Amino acid sequence: MSGASMDSGPVTVTGPRAVASPVPARPVPVNRSRRAPQSRRPGSRVGYVVKSVLLWAFAMLFLLPFVWMLSSSLKRNLDVFAIPVRWIPSPVEWKNYVEVWTGGAVTMAVFFANSLTVSLIGVVGDLTTSAMAGYAFARLTFRGRDKVFLLYVATAIVPMQLLLIPRFMFFQQLGLYNTLWALILPGIFTVFGTFLVRQAFLAVPAELGEAARIDGAGEWRVFSRVYLPQIRPTLAALAIISFVGSWNDYEGPLIMLSDQNLYTVPLGLTRFVDADGGLSAGLAMAGSVSSVIPILIIFLVFQRQFVAALATSGLK
């Protein structure tokens, strides 16, 4: 085959000795996922800016009363209701907080201790009873389960104000009137908590419990080790709701307590109103600002779980 020219095309030989044609090179794949970032369109960018400004405006509108309360807590009584409003107090009255926390025989420290006792014990009790009752109504099978749950939920339509007088008489006969237990015990059993936890248990796949039972786990182990860890966000959300409701309760302590040493924070704030209806506005605002701090701490601690519970509450 002398004189054969070397070219790039395929060569075919019909003799006993065949020459393989060269294999064409494969095209290099193009990574289409790495594209240059496209700039936001002018119209969408303007819409994004407008939405952000509106959301910030609404946020500041809702925060305005709290800013006024914080500013008023550092003012004299004469300057609290001055018009126009002076947002920056002058002079700054730090002594309002000193008077609230240290002045007098009964101070905010006593009210805080009582409120924390009632709220924390109530939260632990509410989480315990709601988790056990919710699991029973969701995953246990017994006769009349759905009817009992329906009757239990139906009790939520009764206004709480209608139960204050019967509750007062009941605790008075038990000798629990004018004690913190008269505030703790009603908060341990809540219809809302049972309903919320039951819905969370229903969202957990039943196959998890069945697999644990096949492996020999008892019912309590299935409840505590399998199902309960799956609803931690819901329990965190319930803890926040229960704590805030117990901390802000005013009607219960007003009916059940008569000793100032047992007053909770909402009832203790009425101490800044004298018998003639006069209000020590600066002291009252300082006490109100102090009362918000535990709620903010609880929310910041359980914020992620609370948001996760809200995000997954509609998924099933």
TrEMBL record:
Residues 1-42 are annotated as: Disordered. Residues 112-302 form the ABC transmembrane type-1 domain. GO terms for biological process: transmembrane transport. Keywords: Cell membrane, Membrane, Transmembrane, Transmembrane helix, Transport. CDD domains: TM_PBP2. Residues 16-31 have a biased composition (Low complexity). PROSITE patterns: ABC_TM1. Belongs to the binding-protein-dependent transport system permease family. This is Carbohydrate ABC transporter membrane protein 2 (CUT1 family). Its main location: membrane. It comes from Kribbella amoyensis. It is a multi-pass membrane protein. The keyword Transmembrane applies.
